[in-house]
Design a protein that fits this description.
By secondary structure, this protein is an alpha/beta fold. The chain folds into 3 domains: 169 residues, Molybdenum Cofactor Biosythetic Enzyme, Chain A (3-Layer(aba) Sandwich); 78 residues, Alpha-Beta Plaits; 154 residues, Maf protein, CATH 3.90.950.20. It contains 15 helices and 17 strands. The chain is elongated and about 80 Å long.
Length: 415
């Protein structure tokens, strides 16, 4: 059964706000075996909304419509649905009672623009019967319509709690679908394809999508079929083969992030980490502490941006800085080893480089970076020349630093 998604809002069409609702909805629908035939983004114009709703009613089994349900003048979705389906707008008793209770509880004034949020096309059913947030359901011309608010958090919540369950109950003739995201760093998209493309035709019902997500690549693997345990076997066998082909270039799966994988390895091996950052400006520490519970293993993070800070905080020799420069292998090594000692940790990593766009020289152009990983087994410094703008160079540096740490941890035995 095919459906479609319609996103409504001037802010979406103008590019002022990125439409994240359609991304979420399409991903979730595909995950449960629902095929999305089209995604449309339209402005807050009544005739375009009417036209889109009529089209959907003629060709789709279901349609999810987001936006245009609020109290302002440009919130036209309920009115447009009324006209598209030739159903009069009526004050919905359930919506009205919930709205009145909310207004009274919060000592607000029931203005007409607020009251109109309780006006729905005849026959429509409010989705959330506990709060005043907008959203309703109705069926027209054998097409099931779900009208959701444009606020992403509300869209997600209503979809997960109401819409998805209703769809699963109504539309049963759909295939079983299993998906897996393989997260890869260190290979180009063409290199990934060359290594695994011959595998894909060998697995029935399987499809693979290559998605660049700077600075890494994601492999979206989908298997469809009528027998769940069979497609589960297909997916597991394919992932096993891909893992053999790509090895340590795969850092994780599905919701894994590089920093969460690094954190898991540190905790698993009962090891600790300190970080000294120059060109990354705290980005590595930021990423590490985005993981809940990172205080178990992350003990110290310092941003030593100036030569003075490197000398005073990490005791990097002034003569070394003067002779070799802050962006050098020796300084990176000194930073990594010093922060490890300072934090009294098992690992110390350090970054120093030129993120640009200024500061480069013929000998050390923009993008020149040194990354140090100091481990219990010794210290290793890598030299890189990254391309891109300032943010891209900082991001890539943090990614390589974390990946180098990950690879080092994988080589260590468990304690």
């Amino acid at each position: 059964m095919k459906g479609e998604i319609i996103a409504i809002g001037n802010e979406l069409v103008s590019g002022r706000i990125q439409d994240t609702n359609t991304f979420f909805l399409a991903k979730e629908l595909a995950r449960y075996g629902f095929e999305v035939r089209s995604i449309k983004i339209i402005p807050d114009q009544e005739h375009l909304i009417i036209e889109s709703l009529i089209e959907a009613s003629k060709r789709s089994a279901f349609a999810i419509v987001t936006g245009g349900l609020g109290p302002t003048e440009d919130d036209l979705t309920a009115k447009a649905a009324s006209k598209a389906f030739n159903l009069p707008l009526k004050r919905d008793p359930v919506s009205w009672e919930i709205l009145k209770a909310y207004v009274e509880e919060h000592h607000l004034e029931m203005r007409e623009n607020v009251a109109k949020m309780a006006d729905l096309p005849e026959g429509a059913v409010k989705l959330d019967t506990k709060t005043p947030r907008a959203g309703f359901f109705l069926e027209f011309n054998k097409c099931i319509f779900y009208f959701l608010p444009g606020i992403p958090s509300e869209t997600k919540d209503l979809f997960r709690k109401v819409v998805l369950n209703d769809l699963l109950e109504r539309i049963k003739d759909r295939p079983f679908v299993l998906t897996k995201v393989v997260k890869i760093f260190g290979l180009r998209e063409s290199e990934i394809e060359n290594r695994i493309s011959d595998l894909i035709p060998k697995f029935e019902g399987l499809s693979v999508g290559y998605l660049p997500c700077f600075p890494e690549h994601h492999l979206h693997v989908t298997v469809k079929g009528t027998v769940r345990h069979l497609i589960k076997t297909v997916l597991e066998d394919f992932i096993s083969k891909v893992t053999e082909r790509l090895g340590e270039f795969i850092y994780g799966y599905d919701d894994d992030t590089l920093e969460s994988v690094v954190g898991h390895l540190l905790r698993e091996k009962n090891l600790t980490l300190s970080v000294a950052e120059s060109c990354t400006g705290g980005l590595i520490g930021h990423r590490i502490t985005n993981v809940s519970g990172s205080s178990d293993y992350f003990k110290l993070g310092v941003v030593v941006y100036s030569n003075k800070a490197k000398s005073q905080v990490l005791n990097v020799g002034e003569d070394m800085l003067a002779r070799y420069g802050a962006v050098s292998e020796l300084v990176a090594r000194a930073m990594g080893e010093s922060v490890k000692r300072l934090g009294k940790t098992d690992y110390g990593i350090a970054t120093t480089g030129i993120a640009g766009p200024t500061g480069g020289t013929p000998e050390k152009p923009v993008g020149t970076v040194y990354i140090c990983v100091s481990s219990p087994g010794g210290t290793h410094v890598e030299h890189h020349l990254f391309k891109g703008n300032r943010l891209e160079i900082k991001t890539m540096t943090s990614q390589v630093a974390l990946d180098s740490l990950r690879r080092s941890l994988l080589k260590m035995g468990k304690t």
